[in-house]
Amino acid sequence: MSDHRMAPVDARASAEPVPVRPVPAHEPPYYAVVFTSVRTDDDSGYGETAERMEDLVRGIPGFLGMDHARTPGGLSVTVGYFRDAAAIEQWRSDAEHRTAQKRGREQWYERYTVHVARVERSHDYEHANGYEDANSRVDGNGSRREPGDG
Amino acid sequence: MSDHRMAPVDARASAEPVPVRPVPAHEPPYYAVVFTSVRTDDDSGYGETAERMEDLVRGIPGFLGMDHARTPGGLSVTVGYFRDAAAIEQWRSDAEHRTAQKRGREQWYERYTVHVARVERSHDYEHANGYEDANSRVDGNGSRREPGDG
């Protein structure tokens, strides 16, 4: 387990520009909620709400981090990571989050898909180190998986 | 189960421009392989290899589709969906894929993380229809989850 796992999730407080980096692998099992969407042309109010939701979800105990990418004019993919199903349930049932979701369906999203998934294994790679840091699931036969999945 | 699930995965053969749409929810359980990466400045050969890998993975029995988004200058998120662990294993052990992964570590990726996760529930939303099409996991107590997760 390397030190970067202990880094604060919200890096915006830092005065230094922070390099983009994916949410690191955590010790399985944990959960990944994959949210893939195509937006409508109406983005009024979207930015403020997205920022507020990000603040809210970071306050959920068991929230591990969030990856987001958006191809201009194309698909948006957001993945939120949670320690367990209870953390997802708390986020799912948050009243302000539900209101935002409703507005999203009415106004911001042309279509979306949500996949709620339990992470069985994961690993990181850093070019500077030249090695993979694996959090591998121990298989039924006791042997660990090789890194390089995906 | 709606008809779009039967659409061919590879839409590039079509002469018509195809609207961007996320890979739809499938009947759980299935697998999502989340690959989050930050690229180096060296992208020589990347495009050809990425295209070749896409062709290859579409030939894997049990491959269900792939979502990809990349924020310019920022994070790239790719999610591949597979029917079962055996399909992932076949993709993972493909010789040409392994060669490409090795080159990726040496040349194209500053850092990346891979999360291999089993999807327990999922749902779609289409604004035009105004409803969510849920593939919900039946919980231990026999009740279905409400849509609106994530």
UniProtKB/TrEMBL annotation, chains A, B:
EC code(s) of this entry: 1.14.-.-
Domain named ABM: residues: 29-103
Alphabetical keyword list: Monooxygenase, Oxidoreductase
Classification via InterPro entries: ABM_dom (IPR007138), Dimeric_a/b-barrel (IPR011008), Jasmonate_Hydroxylase-like (IPR052936)
SUPFAM superfamilies per UniProt: Dimeric alpha+beta barrel
UniProt cross-references to Pfam families, sorted A to Z: ABM
GO-annotated molecular function: monooxygenase activity
Domain of life of the native organism: Bacteria
Region described as Disordered: spans on this chain: 1-21, 122-150
PANTHER family: ABM DOMAIN-CONTAINING PROTEIN (PTHR37811:SF2), BLL5343 PROTEIN (PTHR37811)
Protein name as catalogued: Antibiotic biosynthesis monooxygenase family protein
Organism field: Streptomyces bullii
